[in-house]
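Troubleshooting log. The previous run stalled partway through. Resubmitting the same two chains, unchanged.
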Amino acid sequence: MTSDPSAIPLLSMRGIRKSFPGVQALRGVDLDVHAGEVLALLGENGAGKSTLMKVLGGAHRADAGVLEMDGAEVSFGSPQQARAAGIAVIYQEFNLVPGLTAGENIFLGQEVTRAGFVARGEERRRAADLFRRLGVAIDIDTPCSRLTTAQQQLVEIARALARDTRIIVMDEPTAALTAGEVSRLFEIIRDLKSRGIAVIYISHRLDEIFALADRVVVLRDGRNVGTRPLEGLGRTELIKMMVGRELADEYPRRTTIPGPVRLVVSGLCRGKAVRDVSFTVRAGEILAIAGLVGAGRTETLRLIFGADQRHAGDIILDGCKLDIRSPRDAIAAGIGLLTEDRKLQGLVLGQSIRENFALPNLGTLSQFGFIDGRREREAFGRHVDQLRIKVPHQEERARNLSGGNQQKVVLAKWLERDCEILFFDEPTRGIDVGARHEIYLLMNELAAHGKAIVMVSSELPEVLGLADRILVMHEGRITGEIVSGPTVTQEDVMRLAMA
Amino acid sequence: MQSLLRRLATDYGMLAVLILLGIVFSGLTLEEQPATDAAAARRVAQAIRRQVPGSARVLVAVRPAPEEGILADSLRREIAAAGMEVADVVRGEPQAVRASLEKIVAAGGRVDAVAATERTGSWLVLTEIKEIFPALGAPPIFVPESYRWPTFLKRDNLLNIANQIAVIAIMAIGMTMVIITGGIDLSVGSLAALSAVTAARLIRDHAGGVEASTVGMVFACIAAIGLCGLLGGLSGTLITLFDIPPFIVTLAMMLVASGLAYLASAGQSIYQIPESFVWLGRGSGLFGLPHAVVLMLLLYGAAHVLMSQTVLGRYLYAVGGNREAARLSGVPVRRVLLLAYVVCGLLAGLGGVIMASQLKSGSPTYGNMYELYVIAAVVVGGTALSGGEGKILGTLIGAFIIAVIQNGMNLTNIESYTQKVVLGLVILAAVLVDRVRHR
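Second attempt completed without errors. Output:
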């Protein structure tokens, strides 16, 4: 069933306004969704996408504006009310209870009951059925804490489908999915379309949007700056709408010629996660490590950084063998790691960004154990300017920043240390096009200064666009090395990733 | 400036609660207070001179309280300065006054006026002098005028509050640090008891008992405090090395330390300690402040600087805020945690030594349930039990809130069982207020 634009929209949001202390997140947003369509919602971080979806999902009350479903005005005072109206939101940060099993999580808050008791048998049957239709091989009795990020995502999707749903909102659903899982997800979405369910799809991955969506809405600074059908829409035009300006190159050109070898890693081992990994990185080089989720890329970086104990292997930096047993050792040797999950591992969310910035740098910012507050503020101020971190003041709590700005604060941390080797683990996950470009430029600049950069990324366009060399891993081993060039394709990488 | 005020309001909001409590108790204890200073004594002397002709002979009668003793001395001076004679200065109960009067009568002297306090002035032996000692006639009784002032706000009462809370407040410094790292230390009360017993025992058995020298006493105290620091370190090691929850480790340590205290003292109070030992616990000096209070203020000052200006302080907050992120940023997490528990142990030991000094003895029953009051002080002061935030000076305010409430209830004659209920409810209320404010 294709959507008929002239019909009454399934959902209509008009003039939605929402403010938080100090920030006006939504300034009068209009949005229509038709049954059976996939509507992509695009926008830079901080543009208001998450807030808008939280209003739709009943998590926030709008300050002004009207919500209509099938032409009738509705109002959601709580997520349960929105859910009852048929709106299911799958947030980027999952809402699963780690201690409960996959099956139990699917029915959390929407248990199947018979005379007041939970009908376990019926629930198990339905859960198994849902997983089968999703093409997922997850045991419904596995506790969610033991599932991978990708598997948890699939449980969330099953959860949304467990009850009658008319609109499903998916916020960055493919961030942690393999290519195979992404295709399956797209199949499921197309199936939902055919059943008349509308899908609001939030993602920064333009390729996916072009492949999947019918229409796209672009938000900028809390306003809807354009609704377009995707047919015939150009990529540059889309980016221009998001950013408000043209981005010359999505991936800045690399002109640095790699110098001498700086980092030599040989025979790294840790159980089944990392098996006899060896590679080298040169000064001025960006080495990408590609592979499927679970291939051992993050684990490899963590081993070198001392975050996990290595069972075997040597690490040699600029000719000296390093004895790294903790992150402290690695940092002292000049290695920095920007973690995969900046909220859980990269930042102390409750502290100010200035304090976060200072944490690995307190040695240079203090004397006899006393922190030099002025030096700290000046040093951070320099990075705020250089990295264009958008905050009203340095005392802002880290949790209040957008993803892109948070990532910049993390980067500032390591830049101040003047690390010689930098590990970027999924540097642009959850970050909008504009901020991504800035981060790419920074990586280029660091390389130009002779640093060696290792980047783990699941975004093949990013890997191909930025790296000099690409290492591909599969189940803990390196399956191949590709020297980047104009003839290298995503398929070349994927072939090695699934070998 | 505005942001500074706002930050003060958020971080130290419990100060408003403390001030409010002070106002409430001041209101409740507002009563007539007799003036006891030199100016009041002068006015009494002048009143006597105006009313009694010639060179009067005056009997001064006060009770044995130190405050009244000062009044008696002032009266003696002012009466002499006014050109009158002091017949006698009596500091005691009615019997002492009677004895003095008998002596005066026997010596054939006379009493033209009596300078007394409101209490002593109403004693029958003075009001009925004419009946009991007809020879003396009916000398008028002069009493210093009174003024209205809350008993709560009297200097002695405020110092009393500070002195009573000093031990708990000092122990709460270490507890604040531990709680900020996301942990807890239930053993502080028992460690204090162990410290008191250890210090007392060392003084009794190895430093000469009642004849112990200052050096001997100091070494005994250092050893006792050191022992507690060691036990704190043991707790910290178990917590960081084996990843056992702090609640369990310190609970076990609480029992072990208490047991050790009973063993070391054979269940008795050890009292063979020289009198000079009470210098710390009962002495006062600087600006009239008790030594324990001065020590408390110094330690809080140092702790505040440590937590807000030093690298170690920053590390403590980071470890409590997000341990993994801190570790991946190069913070020596294990070392920081260990240090927090060692410091907590040391300060608990210091608390025990102060208690031994206050009571001139060491007993295994000291510090019973103190961990609860210490934790209450930390929590009421605004530090979250989940870790990562909280201010040291907030704990000081929290400790004072608890002390003020107890003192206020005493002054308003609330029965002790009721006091317990009230204290518990107030702690709940204080934390609720704090939660609501933060939302």
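Takeaways: DSSP finds 19 helices and six strands in chain B. The mean pLDDT of chain B is 89.
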